[in-house]
Amino acid sequence: MRVLGGADVSTLRFDPTRTVHAAMVVLDAQSLAPLGEAGASRSGGLPYIPGLLGFREVPVLAEAFAKLPVRPDLILVDGHGLAHPRGLGVACHLGVVLDVPTIGVAKSILVGRVQGALPDEAGAQAPLVWQDRQIGVALRTRRGANPLYVSIGHRVSLATALRWVLALGRGRRLPEPTRLAHEAASRVRLAATAIAE
DNA sequence: GCGACAG
DNA sequence: ATCTTGTCGC
């Protein structure tokens, strides 16, 4: 494992043009030092529809991916992977399209419920279950913060996904790749709207 | 029919 | 998802 990637998008709350600004970042897996980033914007796509997030975000994320200076060996995606009504969240979707291993890292639940208690301590975890099946894990990365929901994306086991997210926390709620991608996507949006003026 | 509902 | 400074708590 040499290079890690992070993927996220930024949108305006009410945007008639439905423009989605995407960003992908790459960082050294060892030091977590940023290696580069790329962005892309696209309008006229689908609106946000729970369960169909991949169809809205993957096309523009793939566009950003093509501009990356280095190909990541593993990508952390902001959103669910397997923890989805049809087992095909945006993380799985992106992984299949790019043919790159992915992990789903969501900030809230789409389907399922957390089984058991989740202590308010960093590292605490509990199964995310849906229809009598474990589809992911609720992981408290920081005490006092709402948990993250980690699930399989593409070609990565849940155990491995969990290990990565735990290792990339850096004392903050979001793992570094996703955190940087979120900031990058926000910059892509701000820059695009500034130029449009 | 009603409520839930990643970003 | 985004709007936003100060503020409450460890």
TrEMBL record:
It catalyses: Endonucleolytic cleavage at apurinic or apyrimidinic sites to products with a 5'-phosphate. Transmembrane segments: none annotated. Its EC number is 3.1.21.7. The record marks 48 as: Interaction with target DNA. Its cofactor is Mg(2+). DNA repair enzyme involved in the repair of deaminated bases. Selectively cleaves double-stranded DNA at the second phosphodiester bond 3' to a deoxyinosine leaving behind the intact lesion on the nicked DNA. This is Endonuclease V. It comes from Falsiroseomonas oleicola.
